[in-house]
DNA sequence: CGACATCTTGATCTGGATCAAGCCAGGTGG
DNA sequence: CCACCTGGCTTGATCCAGATCAAGATGTCG
């Protein structure tokens, strides 16, 4: 089966000879995990990183009052905790939002890449930096936008990210999130998520039934979201 | 004068022979910029990164309604837009919150570091990843905490970051931010920042006069902030 | 079949926004 | 030197987006 990470990096720059093989070499053991399973626990000292081969996962922080804040959502091909390679200790846990297939990559092997493949190193670095850009987009959404704008922004983002890995079907995509989960992502209550969602539906911007979302009016949606896709770096550049 | 970046990296891992010199070699031209000056403009295509030698700077996004959201605050020694090295195009502008002294580092020179100094490359990578950890802490603060908790969290963070570079004096630090600026950082109105600040003062957690903040009760402050400093990675580790 | 979780709707409450005004300090120009 | 202006700080009054509480409807699974 193709390595979705390669596809993701190739979308940002062309891989040099040997880099593809180097990536394939380090992805060895893979395993599945169940919905809700915590793949990586907060504050653990890590010596491997997790590559998401299939499914949806989230990085979550839990507050003392029991509230859970999801700080990142990951899709097929994402290196969920590549940052732990240099961080060693992670500031959040990683939880499966659907059943997932994952591979563990030893930090020792990543270190070898930094020793031997500088260009590939820059591309891996890039993917952690894109995660940062997404964090910033969420910060701007939470700090400055209405709940509707925030939700619309999240939908736009997920659509482009899923499209980039070929997981969209025309204007539709599968987003397997419950409304309470959306609340944890957006920092809203599930009740309010429900009402805001109904607003987007009655404005004929989206259809959302079961877990299938259809975007009926991309322009309208991006307008209410104030969405500018530049931060996702979906362009090839020499890096 | 000492290079504050070296001090910052040394706090996270020990530099190998030659790395310090390599860093000093790439920091050549430096210049000052005025308060409010925009050092780097959003969406520009960049071929150099900005090292903050002195002063405070912010990364800011502006929304259509004119609201400004500050998504990161930087202090002396921070590589304000190191991420532009792999990103090439930046999703926010960078503005001086005080008069600053900055140095521009050519991406060509950074590329040379990734070719010749893998360990140093990992440390530079690390600093962009720590920026990401700070973004996540802010996300959790905005999504899950009250305004008072959020402000307390920001104060705790700034105190430790300034302490790490020797810019604190006992329990005091200079934070040259106006209340409207704090509003832009926290996603609150300046009026509300004022009231929340008064709350922290009347709880005897901090004193804040002019731009000098004294922390009167660190335990109490971290408790209202739910502050856990792990995310700042202020520990030496082999990376 | 019961148990459980999600979605939905309504009623009420509240944290923080907005609007408005007064106060003070520093900076400018006459 | 004063008159003025500007921007930040502070306080009060009002408003509203979103939280919370509560309950019913629907659906799924063992």
Automatic annotation (TrEMBL), chains A, B:
Q: What's the protein name?
A: Crp/Fnr family transcriptional regulator
Concerning PROSITE patterns, the annotation shows: HTH_CRP_2
Q: Which GO terms describe its biological process?
A: regulation of DNA-templated transcription
GO terms for MF: DNA binding
Coiled coil ranges (UniProt) are none
Please name the InterPro entries in this protein's record.
cNMP-bd_dom (IPR000595), cNMP-bd_dom_sf (IPR018490), HTH_CRP (IPR012318), RmlC-like_jellyroll (IPR014710), WH-like_DNA-bd_sf (IPR036388), WH_DNA-bd_sf (IPR036390)
Name all HTH crp-type domain ranges: 145-219
Q: Provide this UniProt record's keywords sorted from A to Z.
A: DNA-binding, Transcription, Transcription regulation
A Pfam short name: HTH_Crp_2
Record has Kinase as a keyword: no
Signal sequence, renumbered to the chain: none
């Amino acid at each position: 089966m193709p390595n979705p990470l390669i596809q993701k990096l190739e979308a940002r720059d062309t891989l040099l000879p040997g880099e593809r093989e180097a990536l394939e070499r380090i992805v060895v053991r893979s395993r599945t995990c169940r919905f809700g399973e915590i793949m990586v626990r907060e504050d653990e000292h890590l010596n491997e990183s997790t590559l998401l081969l299939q499914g949806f996962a989230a990085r979550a922080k839990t507050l003392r009052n029991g509230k859970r804040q999801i700080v990142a959502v990951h899709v097929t091909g994402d290196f969920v905790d590549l940052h732990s390679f240099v961080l060693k200790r992670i500031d959040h846990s990683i939880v499966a939002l659907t059943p997932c297939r994952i591979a563990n990559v030893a930090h020792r092997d990543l270190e070898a890449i930094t020793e031997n493949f500088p260009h590939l190193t820059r591309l891996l670095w890039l993917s952690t930096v894109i995660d940062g850009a997404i964090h910033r987009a969420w910060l701007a959404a939470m700090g400055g936008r209405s709940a509707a704008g925030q939700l619309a922004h999240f939908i736009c983002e997920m659509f482009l990210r899923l499209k980039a890995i070929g997981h969209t079907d025309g204007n539709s995509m599968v987003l397997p999130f419950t409304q309470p989960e959306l609340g944890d992502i957006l920092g809203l209550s599930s009740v309010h998520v429900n009402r805001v969602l109904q607003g987007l539906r009655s404005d004929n911007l989206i259809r959302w039934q079961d877990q299938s979302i259809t975007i009926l009016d991309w322009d309208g949606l991006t307008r209410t979201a104030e969405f500018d896709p530049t931060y996702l770096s979906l362009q090839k550049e020499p890096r």
